[in-house]
Amino acid sequence: MNKLACLSGRFGRPGIVFIGVAALWWLITRYGAFLGAETRRDQILLLILLSLGLLFVCYLPVMKKYVQELTYRRRARKEQRLPDDEERLAQTPPRYVTVQDIRHTLRRQYGRFWGRKIRILLITGTASEVELLTPGLTEQFWQEEQGTLLLWGGDPSQPENADWLAALRRLRYRPADGIVWVTSGLSETLSAPLTEDALDRVSRAVSSCCERLGWRLPLYVWSLQESPDERGRITQPVGCLLPAECSSDKLKAQLQAMLPGLVAQGIQQICCAPRYYFLLSLAERFRRNIDAVVEPLSVLLRPYRQLLLAGIVFSPATVGGERSVRHRWRMDNRWEALPETVQQLPVRLQPSRTGHNWRRSLAVMAAILMMAQGTGMVVSFLANRSLVAEVQEQIRPAQNQQLSPAERLQALLNLQKSLARLQYREEHGAPWYLRAGMNQNADLLVVVMPLYAQNAHLLLRDAAAAHLEQQLRTFIRLPPDSPQRGKMAKAAYDQLRLYLMLAQPQHMEPAWFSRTLMREWPQRDGVSAVFWQANGPTLLAYYASGIITHPQWKLTADEELVSQSRTLLLRHLGTQNSDAMLYQKMLARVAHQFADMRLTDMTGDTDVSRLFFTDEVVPGMFTRQAWEEAVLPSIDTVINERREEMDWVLTDGRQKAPSPVSPEALRQRLTTRYFADFGNAWLNFLNSLHLRKAQMLSDVTEQLTLMADVRQSPLVALMNTLAVQGRTGQPREAVTDSLVKSARNLLSQEKQPVAVPESRLHGPLATTFGPVLALMDNQNNSADMLNLQTYLTRVTQVRLRLQQIAGSSDPQAMMQMLAQTVLQGKSVDLTDTRDYGSLTAAGLGQEWYGFGQTVFVRPMEQAWQQVLTPAAESLNARWRTAVVDGWNNAFSGRYPFKNVSSDASLPLLAKYLNTDTGRIARFLQNNLSGVLHREGSRWVPDTINTRGLTFNPAFLKAINTLSEIADVAFTTGNAGLHFELRPGTAAGVMQTTLITDNQKLIYVNQMPVWKRFTWPADTEAPGASLSWVSTQAGTRQYADLPGSWGLIRLLEMARRKAAPGVASGWSLSWQAQDGRMLNYTLRTEAGEGPLVLLKLRNFVLPETVFELSGTSAFTGNDEDAGDTVEETD
C-alpha cells in the first residue's frame, strides 16, 4: 500500500483538504502579488476560491459514485428489476459498481499504479467449462490472485453482456491483456468435436467483445482434456505460443515440438503414481491424430477473421480450486503457459486499439514536436551565432580609422541595414529560425546601437554639420549689397534648417532632411559621386529617424553662426519660395475629405445621361462646400504652422521674428492660387462635356424637349449648380447686399434700372464664371444681350417645328423642303436658333469653348443634320439627273476626256461651263446658294450652314476646275481664247512650220517674233500640224491633228515648263522623230491659256454633292481644289 493510500486511510479526505488549504494559504501569502492579490482581502477571496476547487476535486469520486448508484437504482425500477415498495430484496450489483469495486480493491492491494502491476485476462466460454477451469468465476465476475486478474467474458453462444463489457472498458486504459477461450471441444471424450459453425460463433463473439472493449486482444485457446483424479500431481504449463501470421503447418509444427517434453515429463510423473498419465495420454494423442487438434484451430487462423490467435494451452479440469474468500482463486503452474506481459508476444500479436490510435498519434506528434524543438534550437543557435558574427564583421571596418571614408561609409551602410533589420524584427517579431529560445535580437540591438551612433556621429552628423557651417559662413561673408544674397537666401534658409534639425531633434523631418541635404551636399570629399548619390539618402534618412528616438545624439550648435544666419535671413527671405510648398500642403489636408463631384451630382434628379456625358469629374476639394468647411480653415492652419516654423528656424523663441510679409498677404496669395485651380478644374470638367448622339429625328426631338423643360432640364440644373459654385468665396456682405437690393426691387413702385451682370458677382471667381452667370440674367431682355432663357425659348420653337414635321403626313418631304429652303439661302427658325447658339457660345469666350459648343451649338447642329441628311440624298439625286447624266452622255468617250479620235463638242461644253448661264452654274445658284458661294473663280462652302453636312471633296475640286477653265477659255460664253507663239532655234533645224486652224507660223532661223493666234478660229478645216526641215533632210512632218481639239492634242504632246523671263509664258518643246527639238514659247492672255484645257484630260464629273457617311463639314479650305500646270519632260 503506497504512502498516499496510507495517508488517506489515516486522515481521510478531510485531512487531505486541510493540508491542501494550509499549503494554498502559504503559497498565496508568499506569491499572491504575482496573481494580483496584494491586500489581505484579495488573498482571502483567492483562498476561498481555490479551497472550493480543492474540495470539488477531492470529493468528485464520492459524488460520482453516489450519482451512479442513484442512476442505477432509477434504471432498475424502470426495468422492474426491483419492486417499488421493497427495499430489502437483494439486488444484482450494477456492472459499473462491480468495476468500481475491482478498482478500489486493486488500488488498496497494489497501490495507485496497480494497472501496470497486474495481468488481466478475459475468460470466455460456456459457463460449465469455465467453472471446470476457474470455479466461481461465472458467478463472481472477477477473481484475482498473484497479480493476475480474471474477468468473466461471457458465453460466446449467448448474447453478449454489453453493460458488463462497457463497464470493463473503464477499468483500465487497456481493459485486458488477452482473451482466454476455455473449450473442451478439442478433447476426444469430453464433448463433441468443434464444428465450423461453432468456431464462427466464437470468432464473431470474440470480435464483438474486442469492439466493445475498444481493443484488439490476443486470443488464447485453453483446451480442457479428460483426466482421472490427479490430486497431488505437480502441475506444469502445457501449451505453446504461436508466431504472428501463423498457419496450419506452423501450428502443427509447434504441437509436434511439444512431444519430447510431454513424454519426458509424463514418464517422470507416471513413475510417481500410475494415475498421473495426463501428459503421456496427450502425447499419445498428438502422435496418433494431431490433425484432430490442428484442423479446428486452423479455422481461427484464416486471414479474413482478423483474430490474434496467440497461443494454445492444454490441461485437465481444476481439482480443489474452490476458495472460501470471494473473488479469490487458486493459481497454479498451468497459467505460466500464458505470457506475463504483452511485450513477450510478437509485435503484431500485441494488443492494439481499434479505430484510430490517438495515444500513439499523440506520442508520435510529441516526438515530432520534440525533434522540431531540438532542431529549431540548433538552427536558432547557428542563425543567431551567424547574425552576431555578421554584425561584428560590420562594426570593425566602420571603426577602423585607417580605411578611406568610402569604405567606412560602406561598412556603416551595412551596419545600418543590419540595425534596420533588427529594429523591424523587434517590432514585428523575429523569423522562426531565430526563435526557439535562442533569440538574441533585443540584446544585440542594445549592444550595437551605441556603436552605430559613435561612428554615425563622426561620418554623418559631424561631416554634415561641417559642410553646412561652411555654406552658412559663405553666405554670411557676402557683401551687403551683393545680389547673390537674395539668390542664396532660400538655400541658406534650408541649410540653417538642416543644421538646426541636427541640434534640435524634436524638429527633425527625416524625408525632407535626407532629400534636402543631398541637394545641398551632392559631392563629398573622398567619396565617389556615384556611391554618395546612391547610398547617401539612405544613410542620412536612417540617421535622421534615429536621432528622433535618441535625442542624446543631438549636435552642439555654433550659436554665433546661427544668430548671424538668422539675422541675414530675416532681411532677405522672401515668401514666394514657400508659397507653392504651403499651397500643396494645404491641398493635401483636404484632398480626401470630400467626394469628387460628377455630372449626375450637378444635375440632381434630372436624366442627364440622355443629353450629356463625360468621364471627367471635379475634385471634391474644388467645391463650395470644401471651401467653406475645409479649405478656408486649412489655409489659416497652414499660415499658423508656417509662422511657427519660421519661429523655430529664424528665432530662438525669445523674440518674435519680423515677418517679411503679413499673414493677410500670404492668405491672399494662397486664396488666389486656390481659386485659380478651382476655376481651371471646373473649366476642364465643363469643356469635357459631350452631347449624346441622336440616331433619329425622334431622338433629337426628345433631347430638345428635355433641354427646354425648365423643371426637368439637365442644362438648367447644371447652370443652377454653376451659379452656386461660381459664387464660392464671395464675401458675405455682397450676398447680403444682393438680398437687400432684391427686396427693394420688389417693394419699389418705380422701375429699377438694369443691373450690370458683373455687379451681381463679387468674388474671386467673377472672371471665370462671369460669362456663364451672365447668361442667367433674365432681367436684361435687350436685343444685344444673350441669355439662357431666350436660347431655351428658341430651342422650344425648333422642337415644335420638328414635331410638326414628324407629325405631318409626309415627314420626309417636309424635311427636304425645310432643308432646301436653307440650302437656297433662306432663313428659318432652325438656322436662326443655330446662329443664336453659336453667338452665345462665342460670347462665353475661348476658355468656355468646349462647354459652349456642347451646350449651345451641337444640339442645333445635330437637329440640323437630321434635317439635312434626307435633303442631301435628294440633292445628290437631282445633281445626277440635272447635270451628271447629260454630261456623261455628251462627253464620255470623247477627247479630251478620253484619249480617242472623236472630239467633244465645244458649243455643248460651253453650255455647261458658262460662268453665268451654264447648266452647272445655274444648278449651284438655284440649289446651293445658301451653303455654297463664289469667291473669284472658286466655289467655297459656307462653314455655318454646312454644319452637319460634308461636301464631297471631289465635287468641290471638279467644279473649281471647271470654273477655272470657264474663266480662261469660255469668257464670252462660247469657247474662245487668244495667245501668242514665238519660235525658237534648235541644233540641226533649218525651218519649222506650225499651222493651227489655217493660222501659220513659219520660222527659218531669222529673228523670232511673236505671232497672235485665235482658238478656235472660224475655218472649215480646223486642226493643227507641225513640220520641220533639218540640215540633213528635207521637210518632215511631226504631227497632223485634224479637228477642233487639234491644237490641244498637239500641246499635250509637248514638253511644258514655265518660261524664265516671260510673264505668263511657257516653254514648249517637241522632240522630232530624228531626235531634234522643235522649240516654241507660248504667251497667254489669261491664266494658262490653251494649256488649261489639258485639265479636262481624263476628267470625271462626280455623281454626288455631299458625302452621306461623313460627319464633319467641309471647310472649303482645300488647297488642292485647283491644279497647277504640270511640268513635263
UniProtKB/TrEMBL annotation:
It comes from the Bacteria. Residues 870-975 form the Type VI secretion system component TssM1 helical domain. Pfam families: IcmF-related, IcmF_C, IcmF_helical. The chain crosses the membrane at residues 12-32, 44-63. InterPro entries: IcmF-rel, IcmF_C, T6SS_TssM-like, TssM1_hel. Keywords: Membrane, Transmembrane, Transmembrane helix. This is Type VI secretion protein VasK. The lineage of its organism: Bacteria, Pseudomonadati, Pseudomonadota, Gammaproteobacteria, Enterobacterales.
